[in-house]
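I am still getting used to C-alpha coordinates and would like to learn alongside you. Please make up or recall a protein chain and show it to me in full. Would you write everything just below, so we can both look at the same thing?
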Amino acid sequence: MLVTPSALDGALLVDKPSGWTSHDVVDKLRRHLGIKKVGHCGTLDPMATGLLIILLGKGTKLSDQLMSSDKVYAGQVRFGETTSTYDAEGEMVASLPVPPITLDSLNESARAFVGDLMQTPPMVSAVKVKGVPLYRLARQGLEVERDARLVHVYNFRFSAYTEPVGDFRLACTKGTYVRSIAHDLGEALGCGAHLAALRRLDSGRFSVADATPLAALLASEPSELLAKVVPFVKLLAA
Protein backbone atom coordinates (compact mmCIF):
# COMPACT_ATOMS: atom_id res chain seq x y z
CA MET A 1 0.00 0.00 0.00
CA LEU A 2 1.32 3.43 -0.96
CA VAL A 3 1.59 5.77 2.02
CA THR A 4 0.90 9.42 1.23
CA PRO A 5 2.75 12.04 3.31
CA SER A 6 -0.55 13.45 4.67
CA ALA A 7 -1.44 10.05 6.12
CA LEU A 8 1.58 10.35 8.40
CA ASP A 9 0.70 13.78 9.83
CA GLY A 10 0.93 13.33 13.59
CA ALA A 11 3.40 11.59 15.87
CA LEU A 12 5.04 8.27 16.61
CA LEU A 13 5.71 7.27 20.21
CA VAL A 14 9.16 5.71 20.18
CA ASP A 15 10.88 3.75 22.93
CA LYS A 16 14.43 4.97 22.32
CA PRO A 17 17.26 2.52 22.97
CA SER A 18 20.46 3.48 24.76
CA GLY A 19 23.33 4.61 22.55
CA TRP A 20 21.22 6.59 20.08
CA THR A 21 20.98 10.37 20.00
CA SER A 22 17.55 11.89 19.50
CA HIS A 23 18.82 13.23 16.16
CA ASP A 24 19.84 9.69 15.15
CA VAL A 25 16.26 8.53 15.70
CA VAL A 26 14.83 11.42 13.68
CA ASP A 27 17.25 10.79 10.80
CA LYS A 28 16.56 7.04 10.66
CA LEU A 29 12.79 7.48 10.68
CA ARG A 30 12.95 10.28 8.11
CA ARG A 31 14.78 7.96 5.72
CA HIS A 32 12.60 4.95 6.57
CA LEU A 33 9.32 6.79 6.02
CA GLY A 34 10.53 8.84 3.07
CA ILE A 35 9.22 12.17 4.36
CA LYS A 36 11.11 15.42 4.95
CA LYS A 37 9.33 16.90 7.96
CA VAL A 38 10.34 14.89 11.02
CA GLY A 39 11.24 16.25 14.45
CA HIS A 40 11.20 15.30 18.11
CA CYS A 41 9.86 16.67 21.40
CA GLY A 42 12.48 16.89 24.12
CA THR A 43 16.03 15.64 23.67
CA LEU A 44 17.07 12.42 25.38
CA ASP A 45 20.80 11.97 25.99
CA PRO A 46 22.36 9.00 24.13
CA MET A 47 22.63 7.01 27.39
CA ALA A 48 18.94 7.51 28.21
CA THR A 49 16.11 5.25 27.06
CA GLY A 50 12.35 5.59 26.94
CA LEU A 51 9.69 7.81 25.46
CA LEU A 52 10.70 10.02 22.55
CA ILE A 53 7.83 11.70 20.72
CA ILE A 54 8.65 11.87 17.02
CA LEU A 55 6.59 14.42 15.08
CA LEU A 56 5.71 13.79 11.44
CA GLY A 57 4.54 16.17 8.70
CA LYS A 58 2.08 18.75 10.04
CA GLY A 59 2.70 17.37 13.52
CA THR A 60 5.98 19.30 13.59
CA LYS A 61 3.92 22.51 13.89
CA LEU A 62 3.02 21.45 17.44
CA SER A 63 6.60 21.00 18.55
CA ASP A 64 6.70 23.98 20.92
CA GLN A 65 3.42 23.10 22.62
CA LEU A 66 4.28 19.42 23.11
CA MET A 67 7.84 20.15 24.24
CA SER A 68 6.50 22.30 27.07
CA SER A 69 4.88 19.26 28.71
CA ASP A 70 5.99 17.96 32.09
CA LYS A 71 8.16 14.82 32.19
CA VAL A 72 8.44 11.74 34.43
CA TYR A 73 11.65 9.72 34.68
CA ALA A 74 12.98 6.63 36.43
CA GLY A 75 16.69 6.09 36.92
CA GLN A 76 19.67 5.24 39.07
CA VAL A 77 22.26 7.37 40.85
CA ARG A 78 25.69 5.95 41.64
CA PHE A 79 27.24 7.58 44.68
CA GLY A 80 30.97 7.99 45.35
CA GLU A 81 31.95 8.72 41.75
CA THR A 82 31.82 12.10 40.00
CA THR A 83 32.13 12.28 36.20
CA SER A 84 32.86 15.04 33.71
CA THR A 85 29.37 14.84 32.19
CA TYR A 86 27.47 14.09 35.44
CA ASP A 87 26.45 10.73 33.94
CA ALA A 88 27.94 7.31 33.18
CA GLU A 89 29.22 8.40 29.76
CA GLY A 90 31.77 10.85 31.13
CA GLU A 91 35.26 10.39 32.49
CA MET A 92 35.61 9.90 36.23
CA VAL A 93 36.99 13.01 37.84
CA ALA A 94 36.73 12.07 41.53
CA SER A 95 36.14 9.00 43.69
CA LEU A 96 35.28 9.26 47.38
CA PRO A 97 34.06 6.87 50.08
CA VAL A 98 30.28 6.71 50.39
CA PRO A 99 29.06 7.64 53.88
CA PRO A 100 26.48 5.50 55.67
CA ILE A 101 23.22 6.05 53.80
CA THR A 102 19.80 4.56 54.39
CA LEU A 103 16.80 4.80 52.10
CA ASP A 104 15.12 7.17 54.56
CA SER A 105 18.14 9.47 54.83
CA LEU A 106 18.52 9.45 51.05
CA ASN A 107 14.93 10.56 50.58
CA GLU A 108 15.40 13.21 53.24
CA SER A 109 18.30 14.63 51.20
CA ALA A 110 16.31 14.30 47.95
CA ARG A 111 13.53 16.50 49.34
CA ALA A 112 15.85 19.50 49.11
CA PHE A 113 15.60 19.21 45.30
CA VAL A 114 11.80 19.34 45.16
CA GLY A 115 10.28 22.67 44.14
CA ASP A 116 11.70 25.57 42.13
CA LEU A 117 15.39 25.19 41.19
CA MET A 118 17.79 27.43 39.33
CA GLN A 119 19.85 25.12 37.09
CA THR A 120 22.93 25.98 35.06
CA PRO A 121 23.08 23.79 31.93
CA PRO A 122 26.07 21.38 31.99
CA MET A 123 28.85 22.13 29.50
CA VAL A 124 28.13 18.77 27.90
CA SER A 125 24.60 19.62 26.78
CA ALA A 126 22.77 20.64 23.61
CA VAL A 127 22.08 24.19 24.80
CA LYS A 128 23.48 26.70 22.31
CA VAL A 129 25.63 29.73 23.11
CA LYS A 130 25.91 32.10 20.14
CA GLY A 131 24.59 29.34 17.92
CA VAL A 132 27.12 26.71 19.04
CA PRO A 133 26.03 23.70 21.17
CA LEU A 134 27.81 23.60 24.51
CA TYR A 135 28.97 20.03 23.98
CA ARG A 136 31.01 21.12 20.95
CA LEU A 137 32.77 23.76 23.01
CA ALA A 138 33.37 21.21 25.77
CA ARG A 139 35.06 18.89 23.27
CA GLN A 140 37.52 21.71 22.57
CA GLY A 141 38.30 21.95 26.27
CA LEU A 142 36.40 25.24 26.60
CA GLU A 143 34.06 26.33 29.35
CA VAL A 144 31.82 29.35 28.86
CA GLU A 145 29.43 31.25 31.07
CA ARG A 146 25.90 29.86 31.02
CA ASP A 147 22.70 31.47 32.27
CA ALA A 148 20.87 29.63 35.03
CA ARG A 149 17.30 28.62 34.21
CA LEU A 150 14.29 28.14 36.45
CA VAL A 151 12.89 24.58 36.53
CA HIS A 152 10.47 22.85 38.87
CA VAL A 153 10.69 19.35 40.36
CA TYR A 154 7.30 18.02 41.46
CA ASN A 155 8.66 14.96 43.21
CA PHE A 156 11.96 13.12 43.58
CA ARG A 157 11.98 9.90 45.56
CA PHE A 158 14.18 6.84 45.87
CA SER A 159 12.48 3.45 46.01
CA ALA A 160 15.58 1.34 46.72
CA TYR A 161 19.19 1.75 47.79
CA THR A 162 21.97 -0.83 47.72
CA GLU A 163 25.34 0.83 48.20
CA PRO A 164 26.42 2.62 46.10
CA VAL A 165 23.36 2.75 43.80
CA GLY A 166 19.90 4.20 44.41
CA ASP A 167 16.79 3.76 42.25
CA PHE A 168 14.59 6.84 41.88
CA ARG A 169 11.56 8.34 40.19
CA LEU A 170 11.35 12.05 39.35
CA ALA A 171 8.66 14.31 37.87
CA CYS A 172 9.64 17.73 36.56
CA THR A 173 9.07 20.54 34.09
CA LYS A 174 10.65 20.65 30.65
CA GLY A 175 14.35 21.45 30.41
CA THR A 176 15.26 19.91 33.77
CA TYR A 177 18.70 18.28 33.79
CA VAL A 178 18.25 15.12 35.84
CA ARG A 179 21.99 14.41 35.71
CA SER A 180 22.64 17.80 37.31
CA ILE A 181 20.30 16.86 40.16
CA ALA A 182 22.20 13.57 40.60
CA HIS A 183 25.50 15.46 40.64
CA ASP A 184 24.25 18.08 43.11
CA LEU A 185 22.80 15.40 45.39
CA GLY A 186 26.21 13.73 45.52
CA GLU A 187 27.81 17.07 46.38
CA ALA A 188 25.29 17.59 49.19
CA LEU A 189 26.15 14.16 50.63
CA GLY A 190 29.87 14.91 50.40
CA CYS A 191 30.79 11.90 48.30
CA GLY A 192 29.90 12.93 44.76
CA ALA A 193 27.57 11.04 42.42
CA HIS A 194 26.55 10.63 38.82
CA LEU A 195 23.50 9.53 36.89
CA ALA A 196 23.99 5.84 36.13
CA ALA A 197 20.78 5.20 34.17
CA LEU A 198 17.75 7.17 32.99
CA ARG A 199 14.46 6.24 31.36
CA ARG A 200 11.69 8.66 30.36
CA LEU A 201 8.34 7.23 31.36
CA ASP A 202 5.93 10.05 30.50
CA SER A 203 5.80 13.29 28.53
CA GLY A 204 2.57 15.17 29.11
CA ARG A 205 -0.30 12.80 28.42
CA PHE A 206 1.87 10.30 26.55
CA SER A 207 3.43 7.23 28.16
CA VAL A 208 6.27 4.90 27.22
CA ALA A 209 3.78 2.06 27.83
CA ASP A 210 2.19 3.07 24.51
CA ALA A 211 5.50 3.47 22.66
CA THR A 212 7.09 1.04 20.20
CA PRO A 213 10.78 0.06 20.33
CA LEU A 214 12.75 1.81 17.61
CA ALA A 215 14.04 -1.48 16.18
CA ALA A 216 10.47 -2.70 15.64
CA LEU A 217 9.52 0.52 13.84
CA LEU A 218 12.51 0.31 11.52
CA ALA A 219 11.74 -3.35 10.79
CA SER A 220 8.16 -2.51 9.72
CA GLU A 221 6.99 -1.35 6.34
CA PRO A 222 5.90 2.32 6.30
CA SER A 223 2.32 1.21 5.56
CA GLU A 224 2.36 -0.92 8.73
CA LEU A 225 3.18 2.11 10.86
CA LEU A 226 0.00 4.02 10.01
CA ALA A 227 -1.86 2.34 12.87
CA LYS A 228 0.80 3.57 15.29
CA VAL A 229 0.64 7.22 14.24
CA VAL A 230 -1.09 9.52 16.74
CA PRO A 231 -3.24 11.67 14.38
CA PHE A 232 -2.76 15.43 14.19
CA VAL A 233 -6.20 16.11 15.73
CA LYS A 234 -5.34 13.98 18.78
CA LEU A 235 -2.08 15.84 19.20
CA LEU A 236 -4.07 19.10 19.25
CA ALA A 237 -6.24 17.70 22.02
CA ALA A 238 -3.15 16.65 24.00
